[in-house]
Each structure stands twice: as structure tokens, then as C-alpha cells.
Design a protein that fits this description.
Length: 203
């Protein structure tokens, strides 16, 4: 057993396994669905490598990670079984906006993978901004799946002013705002909520 406890260690193991299998960085990237630039950074031990992409590279190379603790069971382990209504109610209630934004993407991706919008009932959120964001994302996933949106989304009103969820916890510069507006799906823009599509769905 080899302990992988730093990005550099992960990079070294990936590079060694890739070379052992006679793969170029480009061929590994193509087989894993990532860019060659990502492989280069991963092998160099860059600390900000995206976990999902890293796991895809591991799978391609027949590698896996192990943990000393047992794997948790239930809805927290399986995004398709997570109670998103309760999750967002808790996150917004506790004002954990940064994690709530991450969960917006998680919700969209899990819905697309499940083949249906996973928020079939309205979350009990008192803040109209977040209700509009969730309704917009639910409409977006339903549209991509060729399905009608759950009835609760029709009861949520569009915001009076444009809103970017990221501004809940950080400032966003004007060039990024313009890019975000231009890359927001129509279903979210209709709610006056602006999130780049690439930030939402990886499915």
C-alpha cells in the first residue's frame, strides 16, 4: 500500500503509472475526458486540481484512493438520494452561501445524471433570491432532459433585479459579470439569476 497524502505524491504515482502503461499525457487526457494541461498540472503536483477530474484520471489508470474510515452510507454519500430541499433550507438558513453555491452545481449535475429534476417539492426558503435560483436551475435541468418542470417552479416569481449568487460572499468584477450574463442558460436568466452554464452542469 502506498500512502497518498500530498498532491505531489498523487502526481508522482499518476506519472509513473502512465509511463508504465506506455501512455502519453495527451492519450491519458483523452481517455479520461480532461485536457492535457490538466494532466501536466496533476503530474506536477499542483494543489488546486479538481477532484472529479483527478478521480477520472485515477479510474483510467486503474488507481483508487483508500481511507482508514468506513465509507458513509445513505443520502450524503449518494447525490441522487440527497434531500436537496432540506439541504438548501439548512444552508440558506445558516447563511453558508459559499457552500450553497457549490450545492447548486451539485444539484444540477445530480439531476441530469438521475434523468429528472431531483427537487420535486419546493424548499422552504424565505429568501426570494435563492428560491429563484433553485427554480431556474430546476427549469434548466427539466428542459435539458425534455421534461416538464415540477409545478412548484411556476409559483416562484422572477427577481426584480439581476442577481449573481456568487455576490453573496465575494465581489465580482465587471468583465466576469458580463461573461456570466452571456453564458447563463435562458431558464435562469428568465428568473433574473445569472450563473454560467459551465458552472452548473458536468453531466
Amino acid at each position: 500500500m502506498t500512502s497518498i497524502d500530498t498532491p505531489a505524491a498523487a502526481g508522482a504515482i499518476i506519472r509513473a503509472r502512465r509511463q508504465e502503461r506506455g501512455l502519453s499525457q495527451q492519450s491519458l487526457a483523452e481517455a479520461s475526458g480532461v485536457s492535457r494541461k490538466f494532466i501536466v498540472g496533476l503530474e506536477a503536483g499542483h494543489e488546486r486540481a479538481e477532484l472529479g477530474k483527478t478521480m477520472a484520471v485515477f479510474r483510467t489508470l486503474g488507481l483508487s484512493l483508500t481511507a482508514a474510515d468506513p465509507m458513509p452510507r445513505g443520502s450524503d454519500y449518494d447525490p441522487a438520494r440527497r434531500d436537496y430541499a432540506e439541504t438548501f433550507t439548512q444552508l440558506i438558513g445558516s447563511r453558508d452561501f459559499e457552500f450553497a453555491i457549490k450545492m447548486l452545481a451539485d444539484y444540477a449535475t445530480a439531476s441530469l445524471k438521475a434523468g429528472r429534476p431531483l427537487l420535486q417539492r419546493s424548499p422552504r426558503i424565505k429568501e426570494p433570491h435563492w428560491s429563484a435560483a433553485l427554480a431556474g436551475i430546476t427549469n434548466y435541468t427539466a428542459h435539458r432532459l425534455g421534461q416538464p418542470a415540477p409545478p412548484w417552479t411556476r409559483r416562484v416569481k422572477a427577481l426584480n433585479e439581476a442577481w449573481m449568487p456568487g455576490e453573496s460572499y465575494r465581489s465580482i468584477r465587471e468583465p466576469m459579470k458580463k461573461l456570466t450574463v452571456s453564458e447563463t442558460p435562458a431558464e435562469l436568466a428568465a428568473m433574473n439569476v445569472f450563473i454560467r452554464e459551465r458552472s452548473l452542469a458536468t453531466a
